Amino acid sequence: xxxDAHAHIGQLHRLKPLxxxxxxxxxxxxxxxxxxxxxxxxxxxxxxxxxLLKTRPSQLTLNQEVIAFVKLHPDRLGALLxxxxxxxxxxSALEKLIKENRRLIFGLKFxxxxxxxxxxxxxxxxxxxxxxxxxLPLLFHTAVDRCSGIRYLENAAKAHPDLTFVAAHMELxxxxxxxxxxxxxxxxxxxxxxxxxxxxxxxAIQSFxxxxxxxxxxxxxxxxxxxxxxxYKTYRGRYFKRKVGxxxxxxxxxDNALKVYRLPITHK
Length: 268
Hints:
Elements: E1 3-9, H1 21-30, E2 35-40, H2 59-72, E3 77-82, H3 92-101, E4 105-110, H4 112-115, H5 125-134, E5 138-143, H6 150-159, E6 165-172, H7 177-185, E7 189-192, H8 198-208, E8 213-214, H9 230-235, H10 238-244, H11 246-260
Parallel strand pairs: 1-2, 2-3, 3-4, 4-5, 5-6, 6-7, 7-8
Helix pairs in contact: 2-3, 7-8, 10-11
């Protein structure tokens, strides 16, 4: 069984092709993904060159679109609500959306670079309160930039030890070593493998054990065949399974996501 804990629909940065609902489903079928957690890349607040995108749809509108898609395939898809802490907040409309659709929603998603709001920024507090109230994990894009560094996520996790955080990418554009330390030393921080090399994932498992890393891909950010990338081919292959061992492999590819996001699915 394979759970992809980090995928998207929408259009991120306006530099990537539109990631359509059909593309997600086709890719899952082609590459034998059993369940996928999706969020809307169209919820970015700043472009890649730092320009504020004032006319983008609201977090409510975009998350309603994600939920409508998930409702069509609840046995294969789950929703992560991509939030916009720079221009919006965790208001009553967002809470109402969660209350009415809680069975389809498994976490909140944040992209500090695209919002220009760090994980330890005070503007995050209303979202943390909402996550606490509805027992939702928080998935954060982490990378080497002025807003997305893993140290900011560590600050937030230490300040909110009752919440569960997931470090997407294990600090993209780095050697992943600081992210490995952070996940190892903080019991409420997990990691995902989106654009993390299998070599570094193996090192991570050796460092902090098999229970804190989960398979994630950013699918289909590079199109229908994103999962044909050498990293993801390796993760899905027999060699990597033998290398990490069958128990650790099952945790990486499905069991850890089932646990962290409390997904209502069973092994096939």
